[in-house]
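Structure (tokenized):
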């Protein structure tokens, strides 16, 4: 199991225990090996590249829901100065997050379990 998959597992367990009625979904297929047939089927039904890893389906504050692109500590998308690292994949993810923000969602990167849980708690506990 990949490091990202381990992070998803821990976060899913956390959310299930702490918020048993919360509706959330991970983009499970992102890390799957798919046969050529299934990969084509998946691409045809999910054409947007860079779709975030986690969606929490509850409006809070001025937001319609929360999208998070989760990274491992080693894959932190930001440089020390806070700017995005030059990487085609990460840049595409940032574009998708920006588009989601523009239509009323909270959408951002997080790194690791602890930071992701802090982001989720901050979002869910806002008025």
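Design, position by position:
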């Amino acid at each position: 199991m990949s490091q990202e998959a381990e992070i998803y597992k821990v976060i899913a367990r956390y959310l299930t225990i702490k918020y048993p009625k919360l509706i959330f979904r991970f983009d499970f297929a992102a890390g799957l090996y798919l046969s050529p047939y299934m990969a084509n089927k998946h691409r045809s039904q999910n054409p947007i590249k860079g779709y975030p890893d986690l969606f929490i389906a509850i409006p809070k504050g001025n937001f319609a829901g929360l999208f998070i692109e989760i990274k491992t500590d080693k894959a932190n998308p930001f440089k020390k100065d806070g700017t995005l690292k030059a990487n085609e994949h990460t840049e595409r993810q940032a574009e998708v997050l920006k588009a989601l923000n523009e239509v009323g969602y909270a959408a951002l990167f997080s790194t690791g379990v602890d930071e992701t849980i802090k982001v989720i708690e901050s979002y869910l506990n806002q008025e």
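Reviewer-requested clarification: The chain has one domain: 3-124. The radius of gyration is 15 Å.
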